[in-house]
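Subject: Sanity check before I submit

Could someone independently write out the structure tokens for this chain? I want to compare against mine line by line before I put it in a report. The sequence has 335 residues.
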Amino acid sequence: MKLKINISKRWLTLPVSVVSMLIFQANLYAQDSTAVTTKDSTAVTATEEITPPTKAKTKQVKRSFQSIWIIDNQTVMVPIKGTFEMDIMHRFGTIKKGYEDLGGFFAPSNIRLGVTYAPVNRLNLGFGITKSSMLWDVNAKYALMVQEKGKYPVSISYYGDMAYSTLRDPDKTIFKYASQRISFFNQIIIARKITDKLSIQVAPNVSHQNAVNGYYTKNDSTGKVIFKTMKFDHFAISFSGRYKLTNVTSFMINYDQPITVHATNNPNPNLAFGFEFNSSGHSFQLFMGNYSLLSPQRNNLYNTNSPFPYTQADGTKMKGGNFLIGFNITRLWNW
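---
Independent answer below. Compare away.
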């Protein structure tokens, strides 16, 4: 019997002698000063002013990355207050069929439309919808620390996402409860701009699904034993880098490695690389990778495209090289 397992979860006084000394000292200064008397008998004295040394102000490092996106992952960057952004993200099918579907261009594709806005400095809020599973998401990113020369060696941001599937399921064969449609993603992004051209970041993350498939392996008078195909929480880590080739062109690379091991349906890692072209208000990224689901938690939990060949636990050999072509377009406005 197959079932959905649902778990609900959910910082004045001075001595006379001292005063006399000070008055005597003031008189000495007055006698030694050169006085100039004007018609209204105003006296101007010349004294020497000593200015204490000032501490040089440190500057925050800017433009570690050009966009809030680096292929399928968020960058550490948070736009300045008043920035409104629209995102169009597209993933074609895998290239494995070659000419049959023109390298995936004519295969079924996935699209995400999203917007974000920075109401205050360091905070970015957004929402979007993805074609696959008609998935709505709301997200937030906050800059906890910004790289500053001589003070902070790295930038650190937190990113969180909650998604809700609106896929039609009138018979409740997929989702028995509404809570099973919800999934979550939490991530800490740590980045450093090493030179004017090179920026790198590492981002540990955890994805949570509210329901997993399960089976009774025993259901009798002695009790019940349920076999869960996957765990509710999935840990992973992402590595990303950008190298500026020119003022408007950069090379990007990204790798996502699963950490959690599930009983079955273990997701594959993701390797992606490509180019970014940008202007003051636009960013266009063109790349190849393995992720296709356009949701961070779904990509980390359910990716079936592998960049490398591997052998499953049962001895089945799986082919690698399941890459697909994708692009991201962002448009910025600042009010």
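---
OP: Matches mine. For the report I'm noting this point. The longest helix spans residues 16-32.
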